[in-house]
Write a structure and sequence with these properties.
heterodimer; A: alpha+beta; Alpha-Beta Plaits; four-stranded antiparallel β-sheet; B: alpha+beta; 2 domains; 5 helices; 21% strand; elongated
Chain lengths: 121, 135
Amino acid sequence: MPQQTQSGTASGVPSAAKPKVTGVLVIETAKQGISPQQIVALIPEEIRATTKLYLDGKIREWYSRGDGKGIVFLLDAKTEDEARAIMETLPLAKEHVMDSQYIPVGPLMPLRALLGAGPQS
Amino acid sequence: MKFTIPLFMAVLLAGFAAQAQSGAARGLPSAAIPKTTAILVIQTPKQGVTFQQVMAVIPDEIQATVKLYLDGKIREWYSRGNGKGVIFLLDVKTEDEARELMETLPLAKAQLMDSEYIPVGPLMPLRALNPAAFQ
């Protein structure tokens, strides 16, 4: 088991468990109290801007939520700040009608254990 | 554009009216609701659970997770950037199905993890790109 030396953080998660960030998941939902009409009014512009981002390779995957509350994107970004900068170019975000949650993600690190014993990289 | 409402928009607004009458909570209207093609699962260690507790179960967890992947149940898998948990995209159609799958995994059985389930599907607003073709 790796010793928790340098990380020493309160979270107790050694750096070996943290992946290289290869994308940022964004979960965007309508703010409480926002009327549907406010959102619908912006949708045509939102679609254009979002599709442009997709064609630019910035949006790797995009989904509507099954409960109708918003969207989920996987952005081609390396940090939360990069992802936020991308999302803030979109009309709905500019109007401050959406809440966004950002989750940086990367390769599933536990799979490293499948490589068996050997020099740790 | 100002004086005509594309059919998709009209459907959206009608959907809102219907939803308002049914007293539905905040949310977009039914035209915005996709067919569910997958369930996103965000799994994080419960408050107070230590890294060591999780690591003790990890060898079994890896085996079971890889089996699910090879069975086609896990379409995508990620570690969180902060090292505290995983995100899976499961090839199932309902939250219940997703929960059933996740509960076969050792970490869940050991009651060490919290799971959030988000059904997802195709990005419905794209329909408005060509309302005539996509109604």
